[in-house]
Amino acid sequence: MKYSFANFVFDSEFDSGNLGKIELGADVSENATPEISPKMTLKRDKSTKSSDTLLTGLSRQSSNLTRQSSTKLGKDDPIKLAIETDYYFRLWTSPDGSKESPTKNRTWFHFSVEFNPNVPEFEATKPTTVMFHFKNLNKVQRLFTMGLRPVYRNTKDKQWKRIPSTPMTRYVDGALEMQFQFVFSHQKCSYSKEQISMSGTKSIPANPGTYYFAYCVPYSYTTLQNYINVLQDRFRPGSSTKSLIPLLKSLHINNQDVYFHRDVLIRSLNNHNLDILTISSKEGIKNDHEQSIEGLFPVSGSRSRLFNEQKQYFVLSARVHPAETNSSIMLEGFLDFITSNDPQAKLLRSKFVFKVIPMLNPDGVVLGHYRGDKYGLNLNRVYVYPSKEQHPTIWATKMYIEYLAETGQVKYYIDLHGHANKAGSFLFGNWLPNIKQQYEQLLFAKYCLINNPLFDFGECDFAPKAMLPSTIQPPVEQLKDNPEMTKDGTGRVAIYRLTGATHCYTFEANYYGSKLERRLPYSSKCKFYDKNSKVPLDKRFTVADLKAMGRSLAIAVFDVEHPAHQLTSLRVTDQYGKIKLHDWVVDKLKRMYSKSHIPLSEEELSKLEKERSRL
């Protein structure tokens, strides 16, 4: 929708946009309604249609308005306005699902505000301060009390920044209300030091134009398509690096070493692409192509090439929940690394064929939903019983992994997510039938800890409750509004049951950051931080942090697969190092069984001791 009011035009008809409703003025109970000229009325711009585009050239795909706050207030405590507030807007997000059948999920917001300080009769003579008050968010107050702040950017500044002001929150009738203040300004104004300080910046930006606001750093369907296009062009046969300066040539990947294939696995309900990328080295490549699978690959063209049996499959996916944009940023970091000239990446490509599905729920992303698809369904609970008609992207994903599993070569499946409750980054795994598999899971988690200084092993979960079966399909209403009843329908559980692979995980990163202080890497070989940069003190995750998490995930796999290699992050090439690593994993394993009230038999303990004696 597009709304105009005095100096402002609100819009969400773009990629990831969702604007439900706007009203002018504070609530009466807040006793702080600013004076409003009769000419300043809020109206919908009926001339703007959903097919129209913004100045950015993006089609409508994911934005949503709401209110936030990081200072906790009681239900009856008024959210007070700053004295200098010039305009006050109450905002509502549109819930996931159709208008006829909305769900309770309604937290993601992403919208633009075009500010024109020179509208006749309303010309600004000082910075213009606006209060955004979101009225209907889900119960995510903990994120804001931890320190989460919405982000913004100007069309002339492509980098997203956290808003300078501190949001405030409270619960009213079961809904989270959140508000934050923002200062608009323009070039002609002359400001005092106090006014500049109020803006939260060192200087007032000139010609502000259009601002974008979002719950967290957005990552739209269009952004993904552009990123894949760049990768595709980079590895297109015949592409050259001759134009690169000598310094960059050494860093640029030799495209003769990388096999890259892009395909469309299926179309979504709204006819968006479910992309799938195949990445490997050209070692062991065959002349044959993958066979056609009924119902899949609607776009004409050749399928991916086949590889010899020595290579195993690594399946990586993300964005089954639309608002979890941090998962897409982590996926970019992973892809940037495995397509690079790094020696560890080269060895990973020689061992694995990477099958990457970057956006499992493109419809939800395009519509600006929080957790659901076009109809508000949580697609991460339907893997046991996906329907081609109702859940085509999950149905196609499962069908294709089943095809790969027929070779017995699927070794890793990792689904990337964002998390609103647990802080830090961590793994969810499965409860597996024997002690050796459990040992291997915890060994992988240990290498994640070694390579990711922001990894919190204490938040990892491999408990048996996740494996409780769901014998019948849950009602649609429960999938929409109470989807956490069972984890059996999640990707990691269903794909484990399908493939039998030990390494099936959900990798999570909190929207905000970590509850732990940042720590130095365990090893000087850790590539998480830039070599010459100091370790940041801030607990909040940056885009660079999230990309580093994706990269560290790939390096953790390298360490598991090449434990004695000179490039392995932890020095376990000597006997002491191997025993120390083994003892750490066994200690965590015993605690995990004890916490789940499952005794370890003498036979199982003896297996662990035999494993230690071989080191």
UniProtKB/TrEMBL annotation:
User: Which intervals of the chain are annotated as region Disordered?
Assistant: 30-73
Q: Which residues form the active site?
A: E508
Q: Where is the Peptidase M14 domain?
A: 217-553
> Its GO biological process terms?
proteolysis
Single annotated GO MF: zinc ion binding
Kindly list the cofactors needed.
Zn(2+)
The UniProt entry, under InterPro entries, shows:
Cytosolic_carboxypeptidase, Peptidase_M14
One protein family per Pfam: Peptidase_M14
Which residue ranges have biased composition labelled Polar residues? Answer: 50-72
Entry keywords, A to Z: Carboxypeptidase, Hydrolase, Protease
Q: Gene3D superfamilies in the record, alphabetically? A: 2.60.40.3120, Zn peptidases (3.40.630.10)
| Record family assignment | Belongs to the peptidase M14 family.
Q: What is this protein called?
A: Cytosolic carboxypeptidase-like protein 5
The source organism is Boothiomyces macroporosus
